[in-house]
Design brief:
By secondary structure, the protein is of the alpha+beta class. It contains five helices and seven strands.
Amino acid sequence: MTEITQIRTATAAEREALSELHRRSSYVWEGDRADLDAHPDALGVAAEAIAAGRVRVAVGTGGALLGFSVVADGPDGVCELDDLFVEPRLMRQGIGRALVEDAAARAVRAGSAVMTVVAHPRNFAFYESVGFVRGEPVATRFGPAVKLRRRLGRGGA
């Protein structure tokens, strides 16, 4: 298992490396590659998100970037987990779970009561394992998905 030495806010200097990690992680799903090739703008980490402190990185030994999350504030105490990506060779080692828990804890401190995420059915098992519950179907530019919700605070994060 890969050890996370810290989870911290991303820096502007890490944007390119995080965007490449996003690409590698997204290309794990062979069925998504054609859509990703047709829409390269779907990949990458926004400089604005980094500047706003919304991108968190899991860092390993020697400063290796293991994964990242991006959270957006929403209305009425609801925030959204916009992105969650882990280095493909390190998937299923607890990095995604640690990033979700970090995001949830930070969201609680910021006053959010609920965190949402839009996910493809293949990712339901992971999100349910970290406390999300399936909600309503949503349309994305890459096809149907579902919005999942996690209560934060008491009984949640």
